[in-house]
Amino acid sequence: MRPLKTLHDRSIDVWSGRVGAVEQIDEYVVRWVNAQNMDQCVYFRMSRSGVVQVQIGEGANLFAETGQALGWDREPWARLTLRAAGKDWQISSPRASVLLSGERAVVTAGPRVFVLTQWGNAECSIQCRLDLASSERVFGLGEKVGGLDKRGRMWTQWSTDVTPHTPDTDPLYQAIPFALLGSQAGWRGLFAATSARTYFDLTQEEALWIGVDEGPLVLELMGGDTPDTVIAQYTALCGRMALPSLMALGFHQSRYSYLRAADVLAVARQFRHHDVPLDAIHLDIDYMDGYRVFTFNPETFADPAELAETTGALGVSLVSIVDPGVKVDDTYAVYQEGHARNYFIRYANGREFHSRVWPGVCAFPDFLRQDVRAWWGEWTQRWLAKGITGIWNDMNEPAWWGMDPDHHLPDAAEESGILHHEDNGTVWPHQAVHNLYALLEAAATYQGMQSTQPRPFILTRSGFSGIQRYAAVWTGDNSSTWEHLAMAIPMCLNLGLSGVPLVGTDIGGFLGECSAELYVRWVQLGSFLPFARAHTDRDTPANEPWAYGAEVLAIARDYIRYRYRLLAYWYTLAREAESTGAPLMRPVWWRDADSVAQECEDEFLVGDSLLVAPVVQEGATQRDVYLPEGQWWNVWEHTWHAGRERTLVSAPRDRLPLFLRAGAIIPLTPVVASTRQWRTSPWPDTLLVIRGTGEGSLFADDGQSTRYREGEYWDIAMATQDQGDQMRIRWTLRNRPTQNALLSLPPLLFRVGPFAKAPHGVMLHQAGRQRELDWHMSQQFCEFTVDLLRDSGMIEIKTT
């Protein structure tokens, strides 16, 4: 069916409010049935944690079935109690309830209430209305253009290949139907847990309309006092990012394309020559033999294993693009196997579906089938044996261009009747599988890589809720404009708020020519995004740091090195994301949801303690910064600033405004040329502690394996308390490993301040003993060395 343009002013058959029967199907499910039409049903379930599932309409839920097939665990359902209350019905569990009253379903999920009305259908689509408070803002919804607050528009969740995109473009590559609703009163989450095309109509001030093309419409409703508690519940449903490889957190370089192996090696050597850290180079489609996936061009990339060995010696890994389109070619092994085994998507009559993409006419794997995913994983294993370290999944919306070479979009008739098959024989139309296609491809790739890489690195353009389990995400084919630089911040923030922590943008912009000034501002921003990769289009000027001259090279080197200086901080945040689903990159209202903070979309936090205020206007040498609650230390100007106020700060070309929260505890690692130089996860040489009261943590493991899941890691909780006459720093060893490499990590240099006057002394309390430490002052900071891992302890710094 054609995409809908609106939900709130459509003519629909409203079910809510009709005389209906309410019955308990079993101890976990209650059903409301319209007595006049038995096909009009609403099902209610509740998780033990208090998440409420409302399913409007009959039918199987492919997203739920896919999760089961991929081995995802779902929290058990709670037992329900149903009782009549006059004309109303009350459904309850220990942590949630639903009141069915007249035209309304009043859902209480944890501490928050959802009022659903006007559920019904129009032709094949199903929709309902959720009450919104006028003060409530709407965040998340995955990868969307525009500002951070998504109110005022109708948004469609349908993964789409679109180039270029503008501030008006929707939908884009990712389809993530999760909305985070927030105000000072509290937070709510709504997840449309269905793989069909869904809609979020936010054009009315006091209503959010949710719709789906093909039923049922499955809503997961959750509430909390803070945004992180809601995101934790959402990611418990669809999954969390696994602790990534160290390479994923380093700097990556790419272009469309490095045409020869010699070009790739030259770029790697230039990074080393210019002393710029680099972890990976990405190979775009021109490395292939006629754009056939899992092949190298025999002339321009004659010996990929030797290339990988040579770049590897420089600390640089190779990440190759792998599209899902398989060239129809009877002499090509990938196609031969897939065709012979009926592994490709087919029409209802059994004919193989074909469409044009880069290689020409292609077939497309039916990743809904486990045997097809296993087959794709086997080809991925063979690919890694050639020296490839990471996989870049592109064109996986899926993008196909139809059979007419004069057009880049398929004819509707070509897509009609495309079918996918589950392992149990169930057949699904492509409309139901479309949004899941990239997720399933990523799962297949991840499965194949795991046999040789405990922590696979996959980068994907498209995805659905749960994609964070398998892949990092970049925001696709952006443009080299100041508008797209500014757009990158809310776009990446909302992806993080939608459960995708490892996210970034093409540094410098993909389409068009990037100016030196724009590149500087973009590499400054990109160095503080969770995923950092520079990339550009074919036939554009070089985009490596040295391509813009000596001044730009020096600035780019500094900021990429700052990224590597923060690797232990990034790594600890990644562990938090795996544990709780929290984003690495956070809006400034993350811990202080005042109304002004919720309007900020051109600055962000890395973790809770580091505020980044990028310059996104051409020619600007200063910018206005809003600081959330607390006291903030200007990293460059060495001055304190009060929170909940705006301040104008200097931002010359070589300066990205940075602030640290009072009480911040930031581990700083030695700068390395590549994360390959670490024999464990990045271990700091310095612990930067800003005066004030705050908390922090430090996580460390071997950096390579999954042994941390068996307890092989350091987990250190830290807290600071500034009492005026003295400052205390406490740490607790919450977990100790047994691996020798982790037990021999060196002591840390504590750098604590700023102090207007030198302290009177520094006392260490550890392992039941206390002693005075040797210390000295350096630029308002008190410095001393402590073996943090010997035992839990406390440091007292006497200031008067």
From TrEMBL:
Residues 242-573 form the Glycoside hydrolase family 31 TIM barrel domain. GO terms for biological process: carbohydrate metabolic process. Keywords: Glycosidase, Hydrolase. It comes from the Bacteria. PROSITE patterns: GLYCOSYL_HYDROL_F31_1. CDD domains: GH31_glucosidase_II_MalA, GH31_N. SUPFAM superfamilies: (Trans)glycosidases, Galactose mutarotase-like, Glycosyl hydrolase domain. Residues 100-201 form the Glycoside hydrolase family 31 N-terminal domain. Signal peptide: none annotated. Coiled coil: none annotated. One of its GO terms (molecular function) is hydrolase activity, hydrolyzing O-glycosyl compounds. Pfam families: Gal_mutarotas_2, Glyco_hydro_31_2nd, Glyco_hydro_31_3rd. Residues 581-666 form the Glycosyl hydrolase family 31 C-terminal domain. Belongs to the glycosyl hydrolase 31 family. This is Alpha-glucosidase.
